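W.,

You were right to be curious about this one. When I first looked at the sequence I had no strong expectations either way, so I just let the prediction run and decided to look at it fresh. Below is the sequence, 132 residues in total, followed by the output.
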Amino acid sequence: MAGDTEEKRVKMVEKPKGRKEEVVTREYTINLHKRLHGCTFKKKAPKAIKEIRKFAQKAMGTKDVRVDVKLNKNIWSRGIRSVPRRIRVRIARKRNDDEDAKEELYSLVTVAEIPAEGLKGLGTKIIDDEDE
C-alpha cells in the first residue's frame, strides 16, 4: 500500500505542463447578458470589461489579460447602460517578450467579426496561425 502512494506521487510530479503552455488563438461567443444580470445601470460597461477579462483568464489559463482598444470601444459604443447582449471575441494566448515579466504567457482579447446570421449557435472555433 505504501508503495502505491509513492508511485502515484511520482507520476503526479512527472506530469508535463500540458496544453496551457502552447500559443493558440480561439474565437468565443461571450453571453454578457447573463453575466451582467442585476448589475446597476451605471456599472454595466465597466463590469462587462471585467467579465471579459475573467472569461479570458479561465479559458486561457493566464493571469495577464490584455483587452484591445477596439473591443473596449465596441462595449462602450452604446453607452454605459446598453451593453451588447452577446459579443464574439478572439482570444490569443501569446508569449511575453518582456524579460522581467512575471508570466511567460499573456492573453490578448480582440473583437471578432460578427456573421450576418447572428451569434446564436456559434461554438468555440480554433484559429490557425496561417489565417491571419
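Here's what jumped out at me. The first helix runs from residue 2 to 14. And, maybe more interesting for your project: The mean pLDDT is 85.

Coffee later to discuss?

I.
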